[in-house]
Write a structure and sequence with these properties.
Layout: H1 5-8, H2 21-32, H3 35-49, H4 60-70, H5 76-88, H6 94-97, H7 100-115, H8 123-134, H9 169-182, H10 190-207, H11 214-227, H12 236-251, H13 266-277
Helix pairs in contact: 2-3, 3-4, 3-7, 3-12, 4-5, 5-7, 7-8, 8-11, 9-10, 10-13, 12-13
C-alpha cells in the first residue's frame, strides 16, 4: 500500500507538479499531428496521467519512447520492448526505487489497451486488463486478492473505505456486471447516463478485487466501456485529474453518519461530465476532503 504521507503535501490536482512538461510535449501532437498521431497522443496522455493515482511519475526515457511511437517510428510492441530493455540495462537503481519503472511499463501497456478496438463487458475482461497491465510488475497480476484490506486515505483524514471481503469478490463482481448488463441506457439524457455510469464505476471499484492497481484497472475498463457507447473520450480529465478521480471514488464509498458524511457520487459525476461533455467543473481535491465545509456545485 502506498504511504499516506506521500499525498499530504501535494497540491490541488497533480501530486507531482514537475511532471507538467510531458503534457505540453504530447499536446503538440493533438494540435498539429495527423488523426492517428492525435489518437496515439491522447492514449499516452491518459496512460501517463493515470500513474498519479498511485503517486508515480514516468521517466524522460518514456516520453522519448512515446514520441517515437506517436510519430510512427516504432510500434507499441517495440516501444514496450525498448522500455523493458532500458530498465534491464540500468546499473543504478534510483529510477526503479522512485517508481518510474512501474509507471513506464504500465503506461505503455495502458496505451496498447486503449489503442485496441476490442472489448468484452465481463468480469473476465476486467481481470484480464489487470493481468495485461501489471504482468512482470506485480507477482499477483490478474489474480484476485486472498485477504481483506484497508487503505488509509488522505481525503478521509487517514480513515479507510470498507472494501468487499475477499471471499465475496467473484460473486459481487458477477452480480454488479449482471445488473449493469441488464440495464438499458436507451432514452437517457447525458446527465442521467453520467449519473448511472458513476454509480457502476464506484461499485466495481469498491470491490477492490486486486491487491494493487485497482483504480488504474477500473479507469481503463470504464474508458473502453464508454467507447462501446460511441462516447468521445477527452484526455484532459484523466491527464490532469487522475488523483481527483481516485478521491472521488473514495468519497462515493465512505460514510460517517456521526459526522454527517454520506457516500456521494457527485464528485465522480463532475469528473465524468468534464470528460464526456466538456463541462468546466473545477476539480479541486481540497473540495472533496471530508473536512471541506462548502458545498460543491452539482449537476
Amino acid at each position: 500500500m502506498r504511504d499516506l504521507r506521500r499525498w499530504v503535501s501535494y497540491g490541488e490536482n497533480e501530486p507531482m507538479a514537475e511532471g507538467k512538461k510531458w503534457q505540453f510535449d504530447l499536446n503538440e501532437y493533438v494540435r498539429q499531428g495527423e488523426p492517428e498521431q492525435a489518437e496515439k497522443s491522447e492514449a499516452w496522455q491518459i496512460a501517463i496521467g493515470l500513474q498519479q493515482v498511485d503517486g508515480l511519475s514516468t521517466s524522460e526515457y518514456l516520453l522519448d519512447t512515446a514520441k517515437e511511437h506517436i510519430e510512427g517510428k516504432i510500434s507499441i510492441k517495440e516501444a514496450q520492448k525498448q522500455i523493458y530493455a532500458y530498465y534491464e540495462e540500468r546499473s543504478d537503481r534510483k529510477e526503479m526505487e522512485d517508481g518510474t519503472e512501474e509507471a513506464d511499463i504500465v503506461s505503455a501497456r495502458i496505451t496498447e489497451l486503449l489503442g485496441e478496438k476490442t472489448f468484452q463487458f465481463s468480469p473476465a475482461e476486467y481481470q484480464n486488463i489487470h493481468r495485461r497491465m501489471f504482468e512482470r510488475v506485480f507477482p499477483h497480476a490478474g489474480q484476485f486478492r486472498t485477504y481483506n484490506i484497508t487503505k488509509r486515505e488522505w481525503v478521509l483524514n487517514g480513515e479507510t473505505v470498507i472494501y468487499a471481503s475477499w471471499e465475496s469478490i467473484r460473486d459481487t463482481l458477477d452480480y454488479d456486471f449482471r445488473v449493469e448488463k441488464q440495464f438499458s441506457y436507451e432514452g437517457l439524457s447525458m446527465g442521467e447516463y453520467i449519473r448511472h455510469l458513476a454509480k457502476f464505476t464506484s461499485d466495481i471499484w469498491q470491490i477492490h478485487p486486486f491487491c494493487e492497481g485497482n483504480t488504474r484497472t477500473t479507469a481503463v475498463f470504464v474508458i473502453k466501456y464508454m467507447k462501446t457507447f460511441g462516447m468521445d473520450i477527452g484526455n484532459d480529465a484523466f491527464k490532469s485529474n487522475s488523483w481527483y478521480f481516485r478521491n472521488a471514488l473514495v468519497r462515493a464509498n465512505y460514510n460517517d453518519f456521526r459526522r454527517g458524511i454520506h457516500a456521494t457520487t457527485r464528485y465522480l459525476e463532475m469528473f465524468f461530465s468534464n470528460l464526456l461533455s466538456g463541462t468546466g467543473y473545477e476539480l479541486k481535491n481540497r473540495t472533496i476532503h471530508v473536512d471541506f465545509k462548502e458545498n460543491p456545485p452539482y449537476l
